Amino acid sequence: MTAVPPSCQILDGKALAQKMQGELKQEIAQLVAQGHRSPGLAVLMVGDNPASAVYVRNKEKACEKLGMVSFGKHFPADTDQETLTAAIASLNEDERVDGILVQLPLPDHLDAVKLLHTIDPSKDADGLHPVNLGHLVRGEDGLRSCTPAGVMALLAEYDLELTGKNAVVLGRSILVGKPLALMLLEKNCTVTIAHSRTQNLADITRQADILVAAIGKPEFVTADMVKPGAIVVDVGINRLELGEGKSKLVGDVDFAGVAPMASYLTPVPGGIGPMTVTLLLANTVASYRQRLGL
Question: Contact, 210 vs 189, CB < 8 A?
């Protein structure tokens, strides 16, 4: 990793993820010792997308490490919508399954939104069902979108004061930008959502006490876009090809350039990525507890 000046503290998502997973493992072990079953997570994957295969494998390994049961289902790329809908319906009824996740992206012939809508909201491990997003809008309890919830958990771990702060979220996706804006609003931030059509973007980002980059453009946020002393959260994961078969992972933030400007900064990798998987597991355990009436 690029050297970080003393004025900038790294927000270590990897360390917090390990801590939270350790706590979840202990919680599961205690519940199993009391005679309860293990929590179950079902991940549905369609086709042979190499990146998706890695993500699914990592989720299954994490389940095993925590004492959870993984109900992975891998379908061929030409699987039709009806087959997947039936598989989700079966998992909705399965008492051993507490969380259901459809690994995205799906092959083009499938309607991902329709499939996500068929998941029982109480088993929606990704927190993306309209019912759960509705709970978020209303400020009610419910399963939260994993990546934004991971961002909020990381900010909380470092006791960062959010009340009254100007927060700018770069990106308006339903996966990250929109739910994260609502979560920051819930913590009394004044929130601006910026995106590809925003005019005078740098003028807006320089107003941010908290700047979140979630736009999928490698190293897009540069030092001139950052207010001195800002908290900068990088949600992006982009693979840059270096030639000769080599590549490296970078975020949406120019880490080396922005570090001297920021008071806190998340690295890529090791920032928000590990938090996303951990919140997926935490959602599954929360669903499990609710199902057991605990």
Answer: yes
**Angle at which helices 13-33 and 50-66 cross, to 10°:** 50
Question: Distance between CA atoms of 243 and 116, rounded to whole angstroms?
Answer: 38
Q: What is the pLDDT of residue 241?
A: 86
| DSSP class per residue in 11-79 | --HHHHHHHHHHHHHHHHHHHHHTTPPPPEEEEEEES--HHHHHHHHHHHHHHHHHTPEE--EEE-TT-
Query: What interhelical angle do 272-292 and 50-66 show, nearest 10?
Result: 50
Give ∠ CA 247-250-252 in degrees, rounded to 5.
145
Active-site residue flag, 126: yes
Residue pair 115/88 in contact by the 8 Å Cβ criterion: yes
CA dist 283 and 148 (Å) reads: 13
Beta bridge partners of 10: 265
Residue 78 has pLDDT above 80, yes or no: yes
User: With contact defined as beta carbons under 8 Å apart, do 61 and 72 qualify?
Assistant: no
pLDDT tens, position by position, 232-284? 999 999 988 888 888 889 999 999 999 999 999 999 999 999 999 999 999 99
- Residue 103 bears catalytic tag: yes
Mean pLDDT confidence for 169-185:
97
Active site residue 59: yes
> Of the listed 12, 21, 98, 103, which one is catalytic?
103
What is this structure's pTM? Answer: 0.95
User: Per the residue annotation, which of 12, 59, 123, 124 is the catalytic one?
Assistant: 59
| Selected catalytic residue, list 12, 124, 126, 252 | 126
- Read off the pLDDT of residues 186-210 as tens digits, 9 standing for 90 and up: 999 999 999 989 999 999 999 999 9
